[in-house]
Sequence to fold (335 residues):
Amino acid sequence: MDLKRLRQILERATSKHILVIGDLMLDEFVWGKVGRISPEAPVPVVHVTGESFFPGGAANVARNLRGFLDTVSVIGWTGKDRGGEQLRDLLAKGKIDISDSIEDKEFPTIVKTRIIARHQQVVRVDREKITKLSSAQVGKVVAAVKKKLPNVDAIIFEDYGKGVLTSDLVARVAREARAAKKIVVADPNPNNLIDWTGITAVKPNRAEAFRAAEIPDLDSEVAPKKDVDLIRAGKELLQKWNLQYLLVTLGEHGVMFFEKGKPPHHIPTKARDVFDVSGAGDTAIAMFTLALASNATPLEAAQIANHASAVVVGKLGTATVTYDELISSFEHDFD
Fold:
């Protein structure tokens, strides 16, 4: 894919509307320096120099999209607490539609706090309570999706296994989207066994793909093109879920793309420096779906997702990719 074609796809994307449904989180980063070991326990003492807050989980997928789309909506679950207020404020400032997200005083907003010293993560603290949506809340979400659907080009299910996505919710939303001939892509969680049958595409990482296919991962050091178990797992999931496409992210090995009726295609990584892999999967599914919705070929969409992820892992924190960075990544590839 040349730069002219990439620009055509990205320019077409601006008018699209993508809806993200999944687990919303607030990502907090505490930045500091380590000067000594605590006299109380064999742990480093971090002298805090600053704090940053970013939308996390499904909200980070929406944030990635917002850099390329005029209209992005997200439906999830937040509490009526300080974390929820911060997250909603961040999304509102980012001009991401949160009008149909559920705000519940009984639900504590999920907050992930990462303490960073000298560009290294010292520890991560998770504050969460995994609770599934009630049948009434599921009905509310489905009704909101049906109302938005005529103006939506694609839906992303972002599953972090925190309770928002249930089999019932996914089945009902997917049925409505399929009837309306919308693109539906899912980022699965291995601890939440959801049947993704009939949607457009699924984007697992390697471990998630093997687990879903119920195939043991015996040798991850084999080159992806020669990895017969990986290829078998991919083909198994295409058939199991009746998918059009499957995008398996492979970390430093890039991605393996599967398409119904065609041989698998390995796309090597484009990352030059890796500082932080948090959020790379969010970027991959966001850009893959954006490209599909903008009439990119499936393979072009996979290439764009791979380049975008390579940019993000070169940044610290819950990061996103910009238009200029994505163009630059492709230019570097051509050079």
Summary: The chain has one domain: 3-24+56-108+129-334.
